[in-house]
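hi support,

uploading two proteins for the ticket. first:
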Amino acid sequence: MITMKRMIIASTSTIYGSGYLDYILPELKSFFKGVDEVLFIPYARPGGISFDEYTKIVRTAFLKIDTRIKGIHEFNNPELAVKNAKAIFTGGGNTFVLVNSLYQNNLIHVIKKVVENGTLYLGTSAGSNIAGVNMKTTNDMPIVYPPSFETLGLMSFNINPHYLDPDPTSKHKGETRETRIKEFHTYNDIPVLGLREGSWLEINGDEIVLKGNLTAKLFRKDKNTKEVNTGIININ
């Protein structure tokens, strides 16, 4: 199936020494050109903040690129809000909380359909996790129990945002991020792309471009891990 999807899938909303979304605002200004209002989905609630508090943070950031933000919780009908949106931004926080809320509001299939038909989509952290096949490579604690781990399936692979390389000087002997992803591949065949902080994907239809100053790390079942350079990438 040919899709018209256009997405930015970012590892994080905030990098060290920078304000909320500041590092990626120039990219977002171009991405959202011609869009006067973006529908924000605050369901992931980082740190347990309220929908209103979260939306206020995002609204302040988007003022810098002259774009209005409207929270989905401000609408009486979330499904209709998604169907009428020109662009959607799903923010970071807890992926379990986010996915649970999306299922409660019957939005998983609705968001998938509108994005495949051309509605712009921006995700950061948890909002990027849900663009993949499922949420099983999230870093978050399972503080709620969603009906399913299946997510939007807008990509044929999963993201591991905030990817951290092992620190050779650390005295910590617990599992590394790489170990966790290898555990995932014991039971799953889905490729996983580890996105480091400050990196993002720009997706236009079937073309995937890695942007930012860092490489990404690609994990595939029964294959060696691979460093992926910026530019057009092939996940398979």
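and the second one:
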Amino acid sequence: MSELVEASDTVKLGDVFYESWGYDQTNIDFAKVVGFTKSGKSAICRLMSERITSTEGLAAMAEMIVPDKEWGTTFKLRVRQGVCSSQPCLIGSYPFVQKEGETWAKRFGYFYPWNGSPIYQSHYA
């Protein structure tokens, strides 16, 4: 991408953010900042896989997770300060379903700064 730069006032290259969503379960998506647009108003991100650090609950239908490896295509999220909390957040559409470099579906989300601690995720079966 020709519009990548390496600085933003509130978000830094390599920062990891997460989105929590779901109904009757908690899903987590991680995104890593790999660059910025020239204006610095949007971050260029890639999704990250997750690594389970421990299991929770009956039948291990929940776990604590941390981000693992970058994957998929890059995408832009707007950098916003004071919208989600006092910390910066990233807002926008991201490729939710990808296969062989092609995006099949997108989600809209609010990504919050990840503080380095494992995050709770739950599921069915």
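thanks. also noticed: The chain has no helices and seven strands.
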